[in-house]
Amino acid sequence: MAASGALLLVGLGEELWKKFLPKYLELLGASVAAVGLFGTAEDFFDATYQYPGGWLADHWGRRRAFLTFLSAAVAGYFIYLFSPTWPYLFLGLAFVMAWQTMASPTIFAAIGDALPKDRQTMGFTVYSVLKRIPVVISPLIGGALLGAVGLARGIRIGLVITLGLAGCAGALLLCLRLPAGDRDAVRIGGIWNSFHPTLKRLLASDVVIRLCEGMADIFVVLYVTNISRTTLPQFGVLISIQLLTSILIYVPSAKVAERIGRKPLVVATFLCFAFHPVAVILTHSFVGLVFAFVLGGLREIGEPARKAMIVGFAQPQFRARTVGLY
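-> C-alpha cells emitted (326 positions)
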C-alpha cells in the first residue's frame, strides 16, 4: 500500500503537465524535429534505465531503490522548473525518467513477490488502475490551469505541486516493508539466458509495436492542437477519456484472461496500438477524436495480462532484473 500510494501521489503531480510538455518545448523555441528528438530521448531512457533499475531493486532491496529513484526525479523537476530554454528539458528528462522507468521493475517484482501466479493478473489490474487514476484526473486540472494562467506559468505551477506531492510520496516509501536485496553475481547475459522461449517471442512482438507507437505518440498533442484545432483544455478532456476507458476495462479484461488465457488479450492490445493513431488522423471533429481516444484507451485491454506473463515467466531470484532487461 505504501508503494501504491507513492506511485499515485507522484502520478497526480506529473500528469498535471506531462502530456503538455511538447507544447511547452514548442513555446521555448523547439522545432518539430527537436520535439521528436525529445520523444526519442524519453524512449531511450525508458529502455536503458530499466535493467539498472531492476538490478538495484534486486541488490539494494525495494525501499532503498524506490527512494533513490524518487530523489533523482525531484532533481529533474527542479531542472524543468528553472529551465530558461528548451535544451535544459533534455537534462531534466534524464533525471525525471529515473522514477518513471527505474521504479517499474521494482513494483513489478513486488507484485510478483507478494502474489501467487494465478492472482498476478488481477494484481497488475489493481496496479494499473491506481497508476492511471492520476491520468484521468490531472490532465483535466492541468488543461484548465494552462487555459487560465497560460502555458508557461501553468507548467511551472504544476511542477511546484509535483514537488510537494513527491515529498509526501517519500514519507510513504519510508514505511515500505519488502524483501531485502539478493546480491548474487549473475550478469546480464545470465539473465537473458534465463528467459523462457515464450517470453522471448513476446518480447519480439512488443519491440515491433513499441517501435510503431514511438513514431506517432509524441506528436499526438501537436497534431490534435495544431491541425485539428483542439484547445489545451479539450486535449486534457481527451486524455482523461482515454484513461477512464482503460480503467473501466481493466477488471473485466483480467476476468476474461483468467477464463480464456492471456494471449488473446495481448494480441488485442497490439491491434489497438496500431489503430489509435490512424483514428486520430482520420477524424475531423471533436466527437471523432473522442472515439479515437476511446480506442486509445482500449490499448490497455491486455496490459495486465502482458505484465503478468512477464513476471510469471521470470525466475523469482531474478525477477526485477528480468523485468528490467525485458
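DSSP finds 16 helices and no strands in the chain.
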